[in-house]
Amino acid sequence: MSHVSASTGDSPFQSERNPRDEAPQFVLPLVVRIEKSAPPARTDALETAARAVLVLLGDERAHGDGAWAEAVRSWEDARIRKVVRRARGAEWRRAEALPGITVTGKSAQVRVFPPVPLDGWPKDLAKLQVSGTELDDPEPPVAADPALPVLWLNPELEMSAGKAMAQAGHGAQLAWWALSDAERTAWRDAGWALAVRTADPADWARLAGSGLPTVRDAGFTEIAPGSCTVVADHPALPTAPDRR
Known about the structure:
five-stranded mixed sheet
């Protein structure tokens, strides 16, 4: 598997055109289950989506000669796009029948699929709704455990739940790239535990300037190009601030 630094000039998470734009474009599909009677909590959906990305990246089928490895390499060689769609009932059952991995949170279920060409979605995924995915937290999220990796959302941006899920997935992926093999293994053995929280406005400038992996959105949907959306704060990273 190739590894891309967030700080390089050809980062897949930046608004400026770069050589990645010349490569065939792939997208990582994620589908969140949203039943009318029991929608997931927003924060749990964001965390489950981020873990789903990590589960796929760590899956043996995504490496070497694995069944998904070529698609993952092609995706990593271009822009790193993720699109979150929603499904319920029969739509969800059809999505589960396709090759992929379902990750379950406290209230959320997210299925992640191997990357597909930008214009080559499987039929049963292509017809799922992508826009307007809105979720709420029944209660405000508790403070993040200081021992956990935290994906900090920009408090100055408003994003739909689907957009925020994709951005959390980007942040998790940047953290994955920044870690050593041993640190990735430890994270996997911990079940890819993480938290997603909106940063305190007073802390955001410090986080964004800390040197931690940072997602700058390409501006395809919802927000302006170059917007800093997520800072990935993993305790194993040398620039991680003290959250105690």
